[in-house]
Predict the 3D structure of the following.
Amino acid sequence: MATPPVIDRNLLRHLAELARLHVPADRQEALLQQVQRVVEAFDAVRDLPPASAPAPAPALSAAPLRPDQPEAPLPLAEVLANAPVAAGGMFVVPRVVEG
Amino acid sequence: MTALWQLSARQLARLVQSGEVSARELARTFLDRVDRLDPALRAFVDHRGERALADADAVDAALARGEPVGPLAGVPVAWKDNLVRRGEVTSAGSRMLASYRSPFTATALQRLEAAGAVLLGRTNMDEFGMGSSTENSAHGPTRNPWQPDCVPGGSSGGSAAAVAADLCPLAVGSDTGGSVRQPAALCGVVGLKPSYGRVSRSGLIAYASSLDCVGVLARTVDDAALWLRCTAGSDPGDPTSAAEALPEFAVEARPDLRGLRIGLPWELNGPGLADEIEAVLADARAQLRTLGAELVECSLPHVSVAVPTYYLLAMAEAASNLARYDGVRYGFRGAASGSCEAMTTASRSSGFGAEVQRRLLLGTFALSCGYQDEYYGKATQARERLREDFRRAFAGCDLLVSPTSPVPAFPLGSRIDDPLAMYLCDALTVPASLAGLPALSQPCGRTAAGLPVGLQWMAPPRREDLLLQAAHVFERHTDHHLPRALP
């Protein structure tokens, strides 16, 4: 039986970075304990004996294809209506290019 | 005399079609109940008030002109806050989407309106469908109409509570791992999760795309069948929607259950059940025998890993699906100085609630380098083995039954800090979700404290006809669906 991995602060920080989340210091300990318990509980799937054949592709990839035809896009005003910040017909984001 | 709010959707539609009651009168009746009862329940996050009355007037005007109206003519229908409607706010129970207005309408809602339904308002839910108690909502928790100190279940808890309190005869929900069936059980109403792909997901805010299904909460099995008839069918907006049409069937066609072999998977009918649930289910099984069914024991061996399998797949898909919330194109933007990445992190950290963040971290873990094969990969294999378990079980029986939930409605706040305890609430519903099967929960009795208990039916793929007909027989010969939670 495999030993569940230990979720330590470094791994939690790495996962948070990948998920684009910030975990405040005062929440880290409780979250570590919760995540560790869940990972231990989920460990049973690792003990499944290897499949004799690979799992079939998910149903999504078996979905019927539709004709590759362009459709009318949404009007720009509707696209921008939900933007947190927009200006000049564009989404506004922090500067990514210096100069 | 029976009040309008006590009638089924089918009965209400007939009254409107015959001109005995106007659609406006119906909308007014249910809006008045919402105004009177919902401040304590908080099943709705918003109701459409005057807009719903205007839509009802349009149904009445069509009738007055002699135009055909649909099978749901004038019936007020609520919908879960994760199905979009053009120009109206859809928040998915999240601060992230608190002011989001969709540029299009979900196909399921379009079809309901085309059938004459009057959309009453949005119902509360666990944020992005992640929860089993409707406590994980930016709008606050919903209460169970039978016991206000208890949860209504989740994540479609607002829809279940709304139907149980007779605030509407039908409410749309969504079911990823039991989010229609479990709250239906805890609130004492009918909850139908169709086969995966039976009802279009277009306009349903994604949680876990290989599992998400649009479903319904209803007072009666017949109303759930009526809803399915109006919403099922392929849709170019959802490439996973089934091309195969729903077969014609009469829900009341069976006089009893003779000729049906009903399987009892022992893994879902014993281990981990609360004593009171077990006692109520024993009575329900006896009733099934009385109605002529042959009950046979069977086994679904991989149910033992169904909960971790479900959560690993759902969390992994959520980690991918919710990557779109970056604070740029729509949704909440957090305050941050510096880079785009800092802005995205600030937006997601403030916009998502605690449970969503926990699941995103776990989903990222399941997909991350070094763990993907061992967790996500193994979970996809376990899912296929569970599907094979069901194929074998259905070779020996027509339908399967089990309790819907291992526990009745539990006190608000009692599980919210223990994610694992909350995840185990779904232990009996996730197997059918993983296999994409149609499943239904219906009331089958009560605990000593008067809390409802649900009986879950599971059918082979695309056999909603058999599922609904059998459940209708049980409903017709019992009275568990008759008591009302609130006057």
